[in-house]
Backbone:
């Protein structure tokens, strides 16, 4: 078992860290909201060191689960109290942030220069699968470093795939979310067309799920979060826009034409601008509803 430092016990990080404790790992946690780290220790267990530096000193494996690569960079090396200031030689850094592959490669070089190693391992599956330890984990790094990380990753996920060298996991995650967002948007438009034609949107979802139009969104989002009007899946629209922007960046770096992906990203950013910050990503449906002048489920 490993001594693990876990930075970022938010919506996803909290259940992921809890599963590490259940698997028998020693755990030190940190969050920029001090009260959240303390609440985790009181409710779940582990320790909350006074600083990032102290957390790194106490840990053989350091995990970051943060909103952006910019924040990862800050806690790793830019903050006055940083992880790299306390990182022991030979440590393993696992960045589970859905981050920017280019930024992560730069950070990995910095970690290696200090005698440690780094992999990226973003996740998919949302809060429900984070709680059950059944996340899909997309990993980038050397085979040796990933093998070392496997006992840790297996406590949080069941579908663990090496995608390539450092940064490859994050590229795959961004592209996965691009496909997911595209499926969500086209599905919502189809529901709006059908409702205006006279079809029951709940019936439409059932038919999609029994047919070739089935998607993750039709299975797990349309009824649960859109037609119910709950819009509370636990993954933010702001983070979705960030992920789609990363995917578009990878497209530019590889000189790949992306007309549909660009439209998908622009529509998602348009919803963000329309609705304001802090919205659930399933509220993206409200943009299509606004354009159609129709609210799903209303007759």
Residues:
């Amino acid at each position: 078992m490993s001594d693990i430092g876990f930075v970022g016990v938010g919506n996803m990080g909290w259940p992921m860290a809890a599963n590490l404790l259940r698997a028998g790992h020693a755990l030190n946690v940190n969050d920029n909201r001090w009260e959240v780290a303390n609440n985790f220790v009181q409710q779940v267990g582990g320790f909350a060191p006074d600083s990032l530096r102290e957390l790194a000193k106490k840990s053989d494996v350091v995990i970051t689960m943060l909103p952006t690569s910019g924040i990862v960079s800050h806690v790793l090396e830019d903050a006055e109290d940083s992880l790299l200031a306390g990182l022991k030689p030979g440590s393993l850094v696992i960045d589970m942030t859905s981050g920017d592959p280019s930024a992560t490669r730069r950070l990995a070089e910095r970690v290696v220069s200090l005698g440690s190693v780094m992999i990226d391992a973003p996740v998919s599956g949302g809060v429900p699968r984070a709680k059950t330890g059944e996340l899909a984990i997309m990993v980038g790094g050397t085979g040796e470093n990933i093998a070392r990380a496997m006992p840790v990753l297996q406590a949080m996920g069941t579908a663990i795939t090496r995608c390539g060298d450092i940064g490859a996991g994050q590229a795959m995650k961004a592209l996965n979310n691009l496909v997911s967002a595209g499926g969500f948007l086209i599905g919502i438009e189809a529901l709006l067309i059908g409702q205006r034609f006279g079809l029951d949107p709940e019936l439409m979802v059932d038919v999609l799920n029994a047919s070739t139009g089935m998607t993750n969104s039709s299975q797990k989002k349309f009824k649960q979060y859109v037609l119910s009007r709950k819009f509370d899946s636990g993954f933010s629209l702001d983070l979705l826009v960030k992920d789609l922007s990363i995917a578009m960046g990878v497209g530019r770096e590889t000189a790949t034409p992306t007309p549909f992906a660009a439209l998908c990203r622009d529509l998602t950013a348009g919803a963000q601008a329309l609705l304001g910050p802090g919205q659930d990503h399933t509220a993206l449906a409200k943009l299509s509803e606004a354009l159609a002048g129709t609210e799903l489920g209303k007759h």
